[in-house]
Amino acid sequence: MIRYVFLKELQCNLLSSKILITWGILILIFILNAISSSVDIFKANKSFNLIEQENNERMIYDEEAGLFNELIAKASNKPYERKNGLDMLTFARQNLVKKGTTLSFISDTDANVPNGSDMFYFLMPSIKTNSSSNIYLNALYSLSWSRIFIFILGFVIACFSYDAFSGEKEQGTLKLMLSSRISRFSIVVGKYLGLLITFIIPLMIALVITIVMVMVSPRIEFLKGDAVKLLLFVFAGIVFISMNILVGFMISCLSKTSAVSLSINLIVWTILAVIFPSTSWLGINRIKPIPTIAEVNDEIRIKQDDLKDCSLEWRSDWVGKEPTEGLLRRKECCDRRTKIETDVWWDYYNRLFSQTETAISIASISPFSSFQFLCDKLTDNGYYGYSNFYNQVVDYQKQYRNFIDDKDQADKNSSHLIWNENYYTCYFMSNKKIDANEIPMFTYEPSSIREVLKSSVWNIFYLSGWAILLFASVCIVFFRYDVR
After folding, report:
1. I need a surface site. Which of 180, 254, 440, 470 has the fewest CB within 10 A?
2. Residue 329 near residue 313, CB atoms below 8 Å
3. Average pLDDT score over residue span 404-408
4. What is the dihedral of CA 147, 150, 153, 158, to 10 degrees?
5. Cα separations (Å) of 142 from 23, 36, 139, 471?
6. Tens digits of residue pLDDT in 446-484
């Protein structure tokens, strides 16, 4: 019986001109997504390579920082080795950028979040944005798969599922089907499978086209594990489509007429896809408030001004001699001021990340938002991708500091005093030239498949739970449905 209802529904759908037009529009949108994504990925990779090259060249030799010493050497006719000294590396600021992912066509939310960081020996790595194009324009024309699923496909399914039962009740066909001894459960399952396959077919076609177009794009290649992520996305997409179909079925069973069902269906879609994900962020500043940048800088200034027994005395005759008590007092004062700045910024970034995670938790109550965040995790984009990147930058800073400290300790001519004053510290720490091959360089590592699965399992179970609950509810409601 299920097979009969399923084939009947599928045949009706495939012979419908509305369905065929919808297929064409959906496939066209996905092709546009493939084209724009290929261009965006190529531009992002090109921008990343340029920034990475500039950063690596600066680490090998910082022409701006070494210009003064180089000019003195040339004026004195002395040889000058174009390598960074340890003191130059200590005060070098690295511009680190998160590389874009090949799967950005699934979820490309990097236009709305940072993707880089300035790393410095003394202070917390900053949060910054490096973009190869206008980030505001990107937010407007983004055609990622997750957005297409949520805003276009969700709307289309609502328009095709609203009359699954109320429409057939009005036409009298539902009563006829039940009179031919077809069970109500068979009707629900058959209608569900028929509409599900109807929308899966164009999506599979579009997915193949997108993958082929991305693969033939220059300098773009899929990484190890991307195939598993694609399979997870396909599964999540099927669950998401199922959930939307079953929402329409539920409303259709509870509505007396098709017109009422359509109206309620669109209202529910608007609430779940647009209103709740947007408004759930509004009250987060009251739940977990964070200061403004101006307030952070003000707090740093006040705490530094309140320091007691903090001497910034400097005497030029300290240079070239053993560290004096006055010099040590100045270093201690600078260290205390630096620690205040580091602690305040660290607290700000922690509160920023915590606020974002709380907002995501609230927004994830909507299955539409949960689907979006799942796509972010699978593609290493959005907040999840950046938080992973930033944590790696913090770990890299520790590695870089250890490298500087070890090199300085190994120099017997150094006084081993390093503090956040470029003009003075250079006289009391090692100035030895450092071979470029010894310098630790930052390399971003995307989350492993195991980490992706671990972080995504809750979203997958949550979406699946919605689908199962809705299916059971549709069956219960339809079993009591009056078809007269």
Report:
1. 180
2. yes
3. 94
4. -160
5. 21, 9, 6, 32
6. 888 889 999 999 999 999 999 999 999 999 998 887 766
